[in-house]
UniProtKB/TrEMBL annotation:
Domain Nucleoside phosphorylase per the UniProt entry, residue ranges: 19-261
GO cellular component, one term: cytoplasm
Protein name per its UniProtKB record: Purine nucleoside phosphorylase
CDD domains, alphabetized: PNP-EcPNPII_like (cd09009)
EC numbers for this chain: 2.4.2.1
UniProt source species: Gellertiella hungarica
BP-aspect Gene Ontology terms: nucleoside metabolic process
Length: 269
């Protein structure tokens, strides 16, 4: 951890970001919103996990968005890559130790709602951990009993909505259900998820939210809808479709996040 922090301090030290954004599959283009970007490859950070999934770069990008210092993780490792729900623990601990207070998580997800088509952006207001996994299993301090009642920070959620309306960008809200992946869901699982209260399904984010709350970071999260859930159309779901469709909603999400960060900067002087 010390070695990583030294490298980050040398590269991004003057920036002092308090906001970090984790980019989901196919959402790497969000880094284009970063002004004067500085980069560090995960491979240069000792012990830092690399995602081997196509559509995920592997670098930290630091810079400003609308003048507000920000750190972006372009690429993240997933539970399904190694079966380790705590795979993102070190990166999140690093962000925390580097001074990050607000974490914005993004992902590509499937919609289980007819009125939320591909290209939509959905603010995550709550989640269902359907995987049965938890990144805090094995943690030995009482901190493991992390409260999840307000996991998705209400103030940040309001700020995201305000940014969406200021920029005229449609923003859905809903519950995200975590499936382990990497196979996609079956039509029966999609029907089940809808009955259980989900609006979108995906293979990430939930373990990061749990870890972030454990570490005391404030969390906002949004899904970019890349497809309807299995069985909702006649089509098979593919990763190629995820990568192809993510930039469509990604542009909308970039508009929202840029405005949200600009407002955060004003509020926090
Ligand atoms: N299911 C799970 N994860 C996903 C999907 C999906 O339909 N689309 C993009 N990520």
């Amino acid at each position: 951890m010390k070695a990583i922090l030294d490298i980050l301090a040398a590269r991004f030290g003057a920036l002092k970001p308090r906001h970090a954004v984790i980019l989901g599959s196919g959402l790497g283009s969000l880094v284009e919103a970063v002004e004067n970007p500085l980069r560090v490859a995960y491979g240069d950070l000792p012990g830092f996990p690399q995602s081997a999934v196509s559509g995920h770069a592997g670098e930290l990008v630091g810079g400003t968005i609308a003048g507000v210092p920000v750190l972006m993780m372009s690429g993240r490792i997933h539970y399904y890559e190694k079966g380790n729900a705590a795979a993102m623990r070190l990166p999140l601990e690093v962000l925390k130790a580097f001074g990050i207070e607000v974490l914005v998580l993004t992902n590509a997800a499937g919609s289980v709602r007819d009125d939320m088509p591909p290209g939509s952006v959905m603010q995550i207001t709550d989640h269902i951990n359907f995987s049965g996994e938890n990144p805090l299993i094995g943690e030995e301090t009482d901190q493991r009993f992390t409260g999840m009642t307000s996991a998705y920070d209400p103030e940040l959620a309001a700020a995201m909505h305000a940014a969406a309306s200021r920029t005229g960008t449609p923003l859905h809200t809903g519950v995200y259900m975590w499936f382990s992946g990497p196979s996609f869901e079956t039509p029966a699982e999609i029907r089940m998820s809808r009955i259980l209260g989900a609006d979108a399904v995906g293979m990430s984010t939930v373990p990061e939210v749990i870890l972030a709350r454990f570490l005391g970071l404030r969390v906002a999260a949004a899904s970019v809808i890349t497809n309807f859930g299995a069985g909702m159309t006649g089509n098979e779901i593919t990763h190629a479709e995820t990568k192809e469709m993510a930039p469509v909603g990604g542009r909308r999400l970039a508009a929202i996040l840029t405005d949200m960060l600009a407002a955060e900067g004003k509020n926090n002087g």
